[in-house]
Amino acid sequence: MSQSIKIVTDSSVLLTKEEINEHSITIIPLSVEVAGKNYTDGVDITRQQLVEALREGNIPKTSQPALGQFVDTFNKLGEDGSEVIAIMISDVLSGTFSAAQQAANMVDTKVTVINSKSTDRGEAFQVLAAAKDAEAGKSVREIKEHCADIYSRTSIDVLIDNLDCLVAGGRVSRMTGLFTKLANIKVVVELRDKTLDVVSKGRSTKSLVKFVEKKARYHAEQNNKILSMSLPNVAADRSMLDKVKDILIGDQPETPFVEELTSPVIMTHTGLKAIGVITLSEKTMANL
User: Fold this and answer.
1) Fewer CB near the last or first residue (10 Å), C or N of the chain?
2) What are phi and psi of 6, to 5 degrees?
3) Does the structure show a pLDDT above 90 at 166?
4) Rounded CA gap, 105 and 236, in Å?
């Protein structure tokens, strides 16, 4: 039985196989370049292989899927008269949203493209909500409004152990990167509506822990419960992952939680040992 609305997203999203199969979500893979060779994310290269590439000093490069891939996918999904909602990675991180928009204008299928302004599990929160809404018979307008509401309650902070990848990607200057490396500076970046901003920095891992503690205090003081949390990471230390989880939801063992290697896009920007702290809260999130 076909759905009247079908959901598409990109491979930067963090969804379990069970979630993808249960809700018939279509994933369009990003392209990944490692040491001059091109791969298709999740098809002929795994996230663990990307971690190994980073350990060998090869910083992956990513690019949005080819326009034709979007066109083919949208056409196929619309063959039975279904509409398509495509929820894409933030345009701050990738040109995927723009490519999906271009493709939507080239096909007969009715396609609505949503800029999630998010990625990884943050993007997944919207994708899962949209899929469940579509199954419940909600309209495109209602689904778009729901995604916007979820975005307003989602935060994405990334604890970065070193700035090598941010420097390579042009996110910070080489001079700044050299200084922070010599001084052992750790930073936290936050994905916002239109920017990727450094929101905390300090010497040693303790500064990262202090930021997480500050985040936990915010939730407590604002009575803004964390409804779901994820710690996508780049082969981060087990002790650090456990500490972050304990600080934020240690007293809420029932909170849905996912911990996996993150997507190539995030790996490209953040490098080894990085940890994404992604939360969905009861109420709108303010910047820390």
Assistant:
1) N
2) -115, 145
3) no
4) 41
